[in-house]
Amino acid sequence: MPEKGTSALRADARRNKALVLQAARTAFEERGLDVPLGEIARRAGVGAGTVYRHFPSKDALFKATVADRLRLFTDTARDLADVPDPGEVFFRFIASVVRIAAQNKAMCAALDGAAMTRARPVAPGLEREFWSALEVLLHRAQRAGAVRKDVVLADVRVLLTGCMAMEVRRSGEGPEFAGESGGGQESAAGTEPVDGPAGRMTALMCDALRAGRDVTKLPFEAAGSNETLCEECGVPVQTAHTGRPARYCGGACRQKAHRTRSRARSGDDDGAEGLPAVDAAVEPAVSLGTQAPGEVTAGA
User: Fold this and answer.
1) Please, what is the Cα angle at 77 between 75 and 81, to 5 degrees?
2) Spatial separation of the C-alpha atoms in residues 133 and 127, rounded to whole Å
3) Neighbouring residues of 55: CB distance < 8 A, sequence distance ≥ 6
4) Co-location of 152 and 184 in the same domain
5) Residues 230-284: tens digit of each pLDDT
6) DSSP per residue over 145-199, as a string?
7) How many domains does one find in the chain?
8) Residue burial 257-274, b: 16+ Cβ < 10 Å; e: rest
9) Which domain holds residue 136?
10) Is residue 251 assigned to a domain?
């Protein structure tokens, strides 16, 4: 009987810890580090004492919620190291990380090296593993001739975190990271949002890294935002007031798009099968608040 009772208590403790972590993920996403522990306890349906038994401080709880997500980012990058078309894999991964992290205050803080210098390291070992995995994708893209040879990981780090800040500013939902040891960092929430479609800043950053690229295209097509741009080269398209909107700027781009579709249908395009896996792998891997710890499979 004592053994059964002890086992039941342990199972109950594990369940409560999972509830706290799940509630904390959602709360940190929505409010950043300003959310009180009492609010997290309320969302989890447990008492404040239960939260403190598992996590002695809000700082410890924050690190726990972010660490597993950093690990999933890293695992995804490692899985993509063997996917065909290294250049597009690299750029799509970057765009996905920026887009998702910019919607998540906790992930923004974890990947923002400057913010962590002012506040706290979230998971130093995991952060190093993430950047190392990203560096592998960078080197593959450089060897494939898709990224400039003079670009180093430090460049990508600064540009990536800068893109997150700009995408947050564009959305007008600046995260606050003034946690219990973070001091008085200013929030972008009170500033005017930056005009432009989602992904514009990321696309400009990626074009700065591309070898010989002189036209900026959005990494992800936003509804209604690309109606006057050529689908192939991204330059403005003259549209008529009546009839179907033009998709290409001229015959050359129309023929190029036709050849691309033909290769994809015939299976000659080596990257046709691998590239969709980039978006499919990244987004489920970092969707927050939907799974208890340990429930994410390696392939997510």
Assistant:
1) 115
2) 10
3) 20, 61, 64
4) yes
5) 666 656 666 666 666 677 777 777 787 777 777 656 554 444 444 545 555 555 4
6) TSB-TT--HHHHHHHHHHHHHHHHHHHT-------TTT--PPPSTTSPPPPS-TT
7) 2
8) beeeeeeeeeeebebbeb
9) 66-222+270-285
10) no
